[in-house]
Structure formats: structure tokens, C-alpha cells
Amino acid sequence: MENNEKTTETQGWKRISAWKNSIQAFFQAAGQKIPPVLRNFFLFQRQMEPDQPAWKHLLFWLWNSLPYLAATAGLGVVSLWFAASEYGQPMFDSYFELPALVWLNLGPVLLLGLLLYAALGRQWLAFLLNGALVLAGSLINWFKLALRNDPFLAADVGLVREAQNMAGKYEIAFTADMWYALAALAAVSLLLALGMRARLCPRARLAVFGAALTALLPLRRLWSDGDFYLYDLAVDNSELITPWASAQVYVSKGFVYPFLHSASQTADKAPAGYDKQRAQQILAQYEDADIPEDQKVHVIGVMLEAYNDFSRFPQVKLNLDVYEEYHKLEQEGVSGNLITNIFAGGTIDTERCFLTGFSQLQDFRQDTNAYPWYFREQGYRVEGSHPCYQWFYNRENVNRYLGFEDYYFVENYYGKFTGGDIAMDEVLFPEIIDLYEQNKKTGKPYFSFNVSYQGHGPYDSQKYWWSYQGDFIHNEEGKLSPEEQCILENYLGSLWSTNRHLKEFFDYFRQEEEPVVIVLFGDHNPWLGDDNSVYKALGVDLDPAGEQGFFNYYSTRYLIWANDAAKRTLGRDFSGQGPDIAPSFLMNQLFEECGWQGPAYLQFTSQIMKTIQAFHTSGLYVIDGQVSDLLTPEQMDAAGDYRTAEYYQRKNFNQKD
Asked: Which string of DSSP letters, residue by residue, matches 570-630?
């Protein structure tokens, strides 16, 4: 086998060498076709004689540098043309309204052109190689956006198998513009070979190389700066796009700049002291366990947008018990505090921590170990819903990498109920039921994970959406301004509506003959006014430096509920108070309540969960309901093993469909 690989590698290098020689021979032959009168003219010489007049030297180097630089800049402009994608001419024109954006796209191309010229010594070869790289990246980006609404990121470069799968599933047809660009690349390379033949001396090549590298440093700092990329007005080109869609933000920045920015954002560094063999040893202590055939109950997960129980704050005086129905559900199941990493935004952190069992997430660009894959291995039908747009947080692609067979969005399902708009809970919950009923016809157990949109902020400060002023909030003490009261009542009105639909949803499954377990949780606390003005007016402690403030800031609620059929099937009662846990351990709690062992990684993390219940991104830990920044030696060992195994699990996909 090893000899065959070496033979294949040798043959590959021979083919590359043959192509290189053929290209060089072509350009050398073309050079011989230049009439002698031109070939001997001083502008077409390889080097100027030292005794020539200064004006000839100046003209010689202008002739042999300006066209090359202009052609190289043209590569950047062509890249911007394809970067505009479906937005076309308006987006292309918009790039040139922001000089910083133009420089961040053209600058790297120009500097790479100088580096290649200094390294190779031939303009035509440097231009051809530079153009091949820039055009290849631009066209790959164009096709990925057109076919999957997913831009070409630096992390994709190593995903050869993913690229092959993509090419095999779609029809890749070049447009006329693409053929023109490729023809122009060849034509300009030929012109440079024939007309710009100057050769730099070794000292000059070294100087150009050093100068180009030095000029790259400030550019590198800019393209790696996340705040600059997202928020600086110098590169804010959001007029034609939705700023919450990462793919559209990418398009608004061009191609070269966002591609290089993605390279600085995708590094998933191993934890300190990481040892791959140690990770393998940790996980080897456990074996994946199947769910017994007679215990394969249906599992439905629902993550509610910005949902939290505000009745726990004594400062919130309710005129109407918004949470009456939810509190009844908590009495019927296992409930507890969910310690999220986020506040008022960043929904996917809670969502993907739950689905993967990871406390630290990566930029998902390929199939990744996650619990939906396990349910698929167990014979479950695995799907879900988010009645918003599929590009939101790139769910249309990421959910597939996490193991979902199908996922329903506005574009492919919910739009038919709303005329193309986002669907609220009055549509979402009945459709989760309908999809469940459709699955029953297959005879397969069902895993469904759904994310609501209703409750998404901001909430209007002038107009009441759900009620009249004072219906939900008792504000006789005047703590809240009229604007703040309106914000809070709109939020609580949304929850009131959600809880009505939750009652109908759970009532349906309460009567269902087949066994069903439901996991319900909030993703984060809501936005309530700029600078948390409503929280401040109420006197709610949101200082995460203190324990109470930490829980107020980061915690929501979770509920694990089973209908009578599931309780009988599993022999469990599903009642009581659950521990304070991170979303990465919520699936562990579900498996514990169901009496399942689960995959090896979940078994391992369940042991860790007994020691540490939340690894927070702030660097803090939750242990037995208390926040801590210090660990005992035993806890430090558990934390080290967890980080090691978690990183290994993120990097080594091992699921089987």
C-alpha cells in the first residue's frame, strides 16, 4: 500500500512538472515570434545597461511595473465583480463607495502579486499564479453562494471530501462572465510574457519581497479585527443586505477581505496540555450504548426565544399571571435552571451546546459529532423546525452537519402559512404536531428539535402589541417610565401568548397514546431596553460579578416532561427539581430521566456533570448550584479531562448514518 501511494505521488509530481514545462515552452516560443526590432528595443530588454541615460531607466521600469500592477489590481476588481453574487451591479458599485473596503480587497491581491514576482522573477508567471488563486477562490465562492447560500471560508480549504460531494450533487455551469475572466487571465499573462520581460537582480527581489511582507502587517491586523469587520463604518456596506445574515454580511464585504477575515476567526485552538492519546483513552473507557428497542420513545425538543420566568423576580408585580400554564407544566415534570453563555442574543450558542454537548463551539463547516447523529443511528427520524429564514445563523447548512435529515424554515415550509413571512407560535406548535403525526406513518421513533421565533426582541416602546397598558404590569410606584412599561408588557404579552399555545401543545401530547418526551427551554434572557434600562428601573441585579447577578443574567428555565405512555414505557416518573446545568449537559439530564446510557461521549460527560454542572465561557463554573472561579484538585482533573475529550470530539467525526 505504501509503495503504491509513493508511486502515485511520484506520478503526480511528474505530471505537474510536465505541465509547467509545457507552459514555459509555450511562452518561450511565443517570445521568439516578437519581431527583432521590438525584441531589441530597450523597453523589451530583460535588463538595462548601466550606462544608459536616467530617463531610459525610469521609462524602462515604469513600462515593466505599471502594467503589471494595473493588471494585478484588475484581478481584485474582477474578484469584486463575482463577490457581488446575486446582488449584481448594485452591490459591485457599492464596494467602491467605501475606499477602505476596496483597499482591503485589492491590497492583499497587489501585495501577493509583488511577493510572487519577487519569488519567481517573472511577471507573467507571478500574474498567472496570482490570478489562478484569486479567480478560483472567487468562483468557488460564487457557486457556493448560488447553490447553498454559504460563502467560501478559509476553513473550507481543507474540506476536499465536502467539496467533492458538493460538486457531485449540483450542476456546475460557468457563466459567460467566468469564461471572459479566464480568457482575460490567459491573454494578460501572454502579454506580460511578450512585453514586460524585465528581471530584477537578487538584491532588488529581496527588497521587494521584504517591502510587500511589511505592508501586509497592518492589513493583517485589520482583516483579523472582528469588531472592525462587523461594526466599523469604514466597511459598513449593509444597505442592500440583512445585517443578521452572516452570508449576506460576507457578500457585502467583497470576497478577498471576508475570506481572509474568516481565516483569523476559524482557529479552534486545542486546550492547554491537550493530548490526543489521552482523549482517546478517556473515551475508550465507555462504549456507545443503544437505546433498547422497547424504550424508543419519541423525543421533541423546543427552544423558546428569549423565554424566561420573570415571576421569580419579586420586583416584577404582575396584574395577570402570565406564567400560570407554564407553572402547571413544571409541576408535571422535571424543571431547573439552565445556565446559558449568553444574554439578549446569540441564540445558536444555547441551541448548539444542547445538540452537541460542547460548552465551547466552533465554526461548523463539516459533519460534526452531535446527538442528532446518534438518534439517527438508533433508527430515529431526525428533523426539526425554525419558522424563520434558513440563512439565519446558517442553520440550513449547519443543521445538516449536526445530523438533521430535514429542517423546516420559511422558505421550504412555513412560508405557505404566512405568505412568506416568519411564523409565530400559533403556527409553529400546531405544525410540530402535524410533522409528528406525519412521522407516525413511517413507524419510526421520532427526534424533533424546534426553535421558536416569537419573543424575539426588540419590543416596541410606544405601541402595545398584545394588550392595553397595565394589563400585565402593576406599575403604581412609577418605577417604569411609559416607554419601559410598554417594552416589558410587550415582552410579557408575547409570553402570555406562547403559554396559551404551550397549553394546547402539551394537552395534545397528554392524550397521545404513543410515548412522547418533551424538552422545553429558553435560549437566553430578553433584551429589555437599551443598556438594560427596564431591568435597571425594576432594580433587578444583573451584575455577573456577584452570584445572584450571575444567575439573573445568564439563567433561564428548562423542563423535561413525559406523557403517561412514556412514563409507562420507561418506568420513570419524570418529576422533581433538576440541577442547575449548562445547555451542554441538558441532553445528559434528558437521558438520565429516560434511563438511557447513550453514546460514549454522553456517558463520559455525565460523570463530569456530577462534579461540575456548567463550564461557562466567562471562565466561571457552576458547582452544586454555586458559582465559582476556583476548583479543587479533583475538580481541576475533571475539568482537564472534559476539555480534552470535548476538543477531540469536536475534531474527530465518528458517527455513522
From this structure: HT----EEPPPB-GGGHHHHHHHHHT----HHHHHHHHHHTT-SEE-TTS-EEETTEEES-
**196 has pLDDT over 90:** no
| Residue 289: exposure state from Cβ atoms within 10 A (0-12, 13-18, ≥19) | middle
pLDDT at position 3 is 47
The strand ranges marked E within 367-429 are 381-385, 406-408
Alpha-carbon distance 645 to 71, whole Å?
Answer: 50
How does pLDDT run across 547-579, given as a tens digit for each residue?
Answer: 999 999 999 999 999 999 999 999 999 999 999
Beta partners for residue 581, in sequence order: 338
DSSP E strand boundaries for 229-319: 298-304
pLDDT tens-digit series, residues 475-499: 878 889 999 999 999 999 999 999 9
Residue 134: which of 118, 152, 122 has the closest Cα?
152
Cis peptide, bond prior to residue 458, ω within 30 of zero? yes
User: Residue 297: which of 560, 596, 515, 595 has the closest Cα?
Assistant: 515
CA-to-CA distance for 205 and 201, rounded, in angstroms? 6
> What is the strand order of the sheet 334-339 is part of?
406-408, 381-385, 446-451, 298-304, 516-522, 555-562, 334-339, 576-577
pLDDT at res. 265:
67
Q: What is the pLDDT of residue 242?
A: 75
- Pairing mode, if any, of strands 334-339 and 555-562? antiparallel
Please check the confidence at residue 456 and state whether its pLDDT lies above 80. Answer: yes
Residues 640 and 246: their CA atoms lie apart, in Å, by 33
More confident site: 256 or 37: 256
Phi, psi of 197 (to 5 degrees): -110, 10
Q: Whole-angstrom Cα distance, residue 492 to residue 501? A: 14
pLDDT band (50, 70, 90) for residue 214? confident
Handedness of CA 498, 501, 503, 506 (dihedral sign): negative
